[in-house]
Specification:
heterodimer, A: 337 residues, alpha+beta, 2 domains, globular, B: 135 residues, 434 Repressor (Amino-terminal Domain), elongated
Amino acid sequence: MEIDFEHRQAAHCESGVTTNLLWNASGGKITEPLAFGIGAGLFFAYIPFIKVNNGPAIAFRTMPGHIFSRTCKSLNIPVVRQKFSSKEKAQLFLDECLDKRKPVGCQVGVYYLPYFPKEYRFHFNAHNLVVYGKEGDNYLVSDPIMEGTNVLSSYELERVRFAKGALSPKGHIYYPGQVSAISDEQIKQAIKSGIKKNVFNMLHIPGSFAGVSGIKNTGNKIKKWRDKLGLEKSGLYLAQMVRMQEEIGTGGGGFRYIYGAFLQESDIYLPGNQLGEISGIFTKAGDMWRTAAVHAAGIYKGRLGSQNDFNIMGDYLLEIAAVEKAAFETLKKIKWQ
Amino acid sequence: MKKDDVPQDLSSLGKITKEVCYATDSNGKYVTELSSGWDVKITALDTAWGDIEKRIASAKQQVLEKKASPLLFFMEYRLMDIGILAGYTGFWKWQIKRHMKPEVFSSLSEKKLEKYAEAFNIQVNDLKNMTVHGD
C-alpha cells in the first residue's frame, strides 16, 4: 500500500510528527521550529512524584500531545484523536486510516521499540511516530528521530502502542482532519497565539514546579541534594536531569535552540517586532543549559563533588531562570506590528 | 550553539542514526546539523546504566539466596517497577508483591507464569530459571 508521505528527520519527536503530518497540506510551510513554537512546546517542570528510573521526572517540553493539538488548532485544522481500551479496535482503526491513505501519528512507549539501541530503551511512554503504510503483517513507520524509516510487525507495534506505566499511550492515535490551504495570515496569527501561550506557561502557571519558577526552585533544591541524598544518589539525579535535558525525544538545551530558530523564522512573517533579537536570548539560554550539563557531568563522573560544586550547579539554574524570565517578559510586552 | 560546536562523540545511538541539532551559522542564522552524540549525554546514560546493573546484580543475589522470586530479577532486568508490571500483566500490585516470595512463586499456575513471561518478553522456562538471552 503506497501512501503519499515523505519522511523527514527532526530534532524532536512530536514537533517532527506534526511537521511531517502537515507537510503536504501546508505546502511545506510548517517547518519543525514553527510547529514547536506555534505548539508552545517550550516548558520546564519538576515533578518529583512521577518517578522515572527511580529519579524525579523533569520535563523540558509541554505535555505530550499538546504540540500537535495546539499547532492544528491555531491553524484552524481539525484534529482527529482517539484512545482505545481494546487492542483489536486500535488496530482496526489504524488499518482503516491506512486504507483511506491517511498517515497517522501514534504515541508509543520506547521500551519495546526494536530499532532503538538497548541503552536508550527506558519506560518512557510519550514518544511519537507516524505510521504511513502496511505491507502484509508489517507496518511502515516514520520515526522523526531516525534518519530513515523503519518497519514494525503488528505485534511489535501493538506492544509499544499499549506500553504500560506513566503516560501509557492506550493506543493513542491522531491525525489532522480536512486541511485547506494554509495562508500566511493564518501562520502569523498562529505564531502570535503560540508565543502568548508559551509566555503563560513559562511565567504564569501558579505554584513553583513549572516554568521559570520551576527552574529556579530546582536550582535551589540541587544545592541541598548533596546533604539530603548523598553524593551517589545526587549524581544519579543529575545524570537523569541531563538525560531528560538532552536525550532523544526530550532535549531541554536543544529545545531552547529550536525555540530560537522558531523566533528567527517568525521574524520573517512578523518583521519589526524584534523577534530576531529575542531569538538570540534563547540561543544563550540553550548554551547555558549545555554549560550546566557539562558541570553536572563533572559531578556524576565523580570529578567534582564538594558542596561548592553543588552550589555552582544550582546557581547555573538560577541564572538560566533569570535569562528565560527576561526573554519571556520581552515577548509578553510585544505590541505586534 | 555554533554549528561548528555541534558535538560528534560517537554514542550507541550515533552508530544507528545521527541526531538533528539546531545551531547557528557564522551569520547567526539557525540551520540544522547532524550530531553523532555528546560525551556529556553518553556518560549520563552510562551512569544510569551503572546503577541499573547494580540493581540487577543485587536482585539476582536475592533470588539465589531464596529471599525473592525471579520476578524481582526480571523486574530490575526490564527496568520495571511494580506499577509497570501490574500494567502489563493485569495483576494487582499486592498480588505481585505476594508472587515475589519464592514459595508463592513456585506454586503459581502455568497461566499466571505466562502472563509474567509475556510482560518480560521471555519464555516461561527462562522465567523460572532466571535465564537471560542477550537482546
